[in-house]
Amino acid sequence: MLSAKNLVKTFEKNEKKGKKVLFNAVDDVSIDVNKGEIIGILGPNGAGKTTLLRMLGNLMKPTSGEVSLIEDGEVVSDERTIKKNIGYLSGNTKLYGRLSTRELLQIMGNIYDMSKEETDNRIEEICKILNLSEFIDNRIEKLSTGQTQRASISRCLIHSPEIYIFDEPTLGLDILSSSAIIEFIKNEKKKGKTVVYSTHYMEEAEAICDRIIFINKGKIICQGTVEELKKVTGDESVRDVFQTLIKKEGVDYEF
Q: At residue 44, what are phi and psi to the nearest 5 degrees?
């Protein structure tokens, strides 16, 4: 289980006349993510989704609060061990264009101290999982947007993590590419893997998430299963639930 307790991340920003003020991008957020769950993090731009995901992935230290991994009832606090259990996909990941996907994965295997045999075997598995065979040896700079996104996701799989944290994995993709990624997420859940991801696509979240967490202005404003959320507002879709919740928060946000 991935557990976050009372996470706060404070940044500094400039206001009028150059005055600097502090604000909490994430403000006292606690989340427990269970093994085999798909958790959706939804919210408007600037709500704190990416900052929250970075702290969950141990890529950013919180100003206060803590993130821990619990295995067999034992708390794992070693940062390196936690990172080895997580595959993180950033929303703006830049890949080395002159490398092929295979070369990228070989480098990632070295980073995770995998032997050449382990890496080669895992690459073949990933090739089948994400259907990379048509382009795995092509330069990344020559790939389509959907192929590049699958290449990016592939590097998160090389070390067989138990937890995936994805920041908008289907953003800007066509139907076929986004469908392939959604099927991958669903299949990983069947294997007992955990997925935490942010998205702006309400229908996508409604279709695959076990639980959805809505955040705004750095705070959790509502969370639960799809049916629980619908019951809270009386709405018939996650999109309508979100609109209702955000308007109550004083924000009229349209997707």
A: -70, 170
